[in-house]
Amino acid sequence: MNVKILVLITLMVLFFVTSSSADVLDENVPLFQVPEKAQHAIKEHSQNGMIENIEKRTMKKKVIIYKAKVIKPDGKIIEVTVEEDGTFVETQHSHKPHSHRLKLRE
């Protein structure tokens, strides 16, 4: 009896986990595929940094947001999030500086 209950609970959990994760779709997109208003908002909040990549996130087939990974002139990384219509959502700051330099072995 306990095995049947355990199997039933496991199946229910798997159903809810897979259905909730199916509601979010992520894909990397080039800047020219981002709507103009969203492009403008990303550039406005990039703090003169270089846009490294942009992730398009579609949630529940309706809400679309864009997350741009930006490398600031001082090497710090920020992530700018905007909505499809250009509405600014947030900026997240990374604690790790970005470096293009290769470490050489001594």
What can you see in these coordinates?
The protein is an alpha+beta fold and 106 residues long. It has a domain at 24-97: Nuclear Transport Factor 2, Chain: A. The protein is built from two helices and five strands. Residues 100-106 have low confidence and may be disordered.
Secondary-structure map:
Blueprint: H1 2-21, E1 24-29, H2 36-44, E2 50-59, E3 63-71, E4 76-83, E5 88-97
Antiparallel strand pairs: 1-2, 2-3, 3-4, 4-5
Keywords: Signal
Signal peptide: 1-22
Protein name: PepSY domain-containing protein
Concise structural overview:
It comes from Nitrosomonas communis. The protein is an alpha+beta fold and 106 residues long. It has helices at 2-21, 36-44; strands spanning 24-29, 50-59, 63-71, 76-83, 88-97.
Key words describing this protein structure:
single chain; 106 residues; alpha+beta; Nuclear Transport Factor 2, Chain: A; 5-stranded antiparallel beta sheet; 2 helices; 5 strands; elongated; disordered C terminus
Structural class estimated from helices and strands: alpha+beta
Major sheet: order of its strands?
Answer: 1-2-3-4-5
CATH topology name of one domain: Nuclear Transport Factor 2, Chain: A
Number of separate helices:
2
CATH architecture of one domain: Roll
**Average predicted local confidence, pLDDT:** 79
Roughly how many Å is the radius of gyration?
Answer: 20 Å
Taking the sheet with the most strands, its summary is: 5 strands, antiparallel
Q: How would you describe the shape? A: elongated
- Quaternary structure of the protein: single chain
CATH class of one domain: Alpha Beta
* Cα-to-Cα separation, first versus last residue: 65 Å
